[in-house]
Design a protein that fits this description.
357 residues; Phosphorylase Kinase, domain 1; Transferase(Phosphotransferase), domain 1; 2 domains; three-stranded antiparallel sheet; 11 helices; 14% strand; Serine/threonine-protein kinase; Protein_kinase_ATP_BS; EC 2.7.11.1; Ser/Thr_kinase_AS; nucleotide-binding
Length: 357
Amino acid sequence: MTDVAVLLGGRYRLGSRLGSGGMADVHRAMDTRLQRVVAAKVFRSSSDELGRRRFAEEARILAGLSHPGLVTVHDFSADEDELFLIMQLVEGGTLADAVDQGPMDPEHVADIGGKLADTLAHVHDNEIVHRDVKPTNVLIGNDARAFLADFGVSRLADAAGRLTGSGQVVGTTTYMAPEQVSAGEVGFAADVYSLGLVLLECVTARVEYPGGPNAAAARLVRPPQVPQAIPSRLRRGLQAMLTTDPSRRITAEQAGDLLNGRTTEVLRPIQPLPPPVVPRPRAPQRPPTGSLPVAQPSPKRPVVPIAASLAVLVALASLLVALWPEGEVEELPPVQGPPGVERLPVDIANLERAVQQ
């Protein structure tokens, strides 16, 4: 058997295995055409058809992205007989390896977090949700550069498919966002939350929510415990990234700004303003309790003005004096009551009676 016969895709000679995943193995390989060392992710033939589609989708997604925080895709094959992905080889380890050594320096964690957040922002700008951000999917090169890897369960943001074909939630339970645990809508905010848990673990060297059904539900009732004695940019960034409500969580771009020190403001998503209040017409004011009621005008009645009444009285008196026979003195009825307006009607009636006699 010649060397050509064992070459992957007739070009890549496989070397030592660097790691394994759920459906593929990663090998160090030599590109015999360009004479350079690469990483070859080779799909296992024993995996099911759904796994094959996910692997092919990962290859297409990564091939369409270009960012310093993503491994470069050199080549891939989606043939039924050969399914592989040829990528840039990152010499070093994973973020999980670094956390195994104990708590990391918070300033260093903030630097790594800022770069990973910028990478996620680029991924989200291309309408892709990673859905499986975790320490083993972050590669740390010997030059301390961080790379976000393994897009095997990623999806386009508008694609329906938070579940696999078997009905299981996609992702790693330990780093899932609350909306993933509760089988809710999984969007960009879920990646931000997962990255927050990863960075929190780097600082504490402790898994905030260990695997298992009870731990998965714990994040729905208990928020992550962010240490206070860490740099302000990291503390504020983690608090804003780990908000339970995804609508109140900051974006990957905002997380990058905070962690990288480009801003000190936590700019949460803008909430819609309430509708303006239209003032109602004011009702007529009522008098306070205990005050006197306002007098209402009484129905109009014909009232003889006082001056006119007096004039009539004087005229009648003059007429009486002029017509009264001499020598006869008619005795008027006795005066009733004190003089004034109240006695006026009685006086007029007496005068009229005297004239008629």
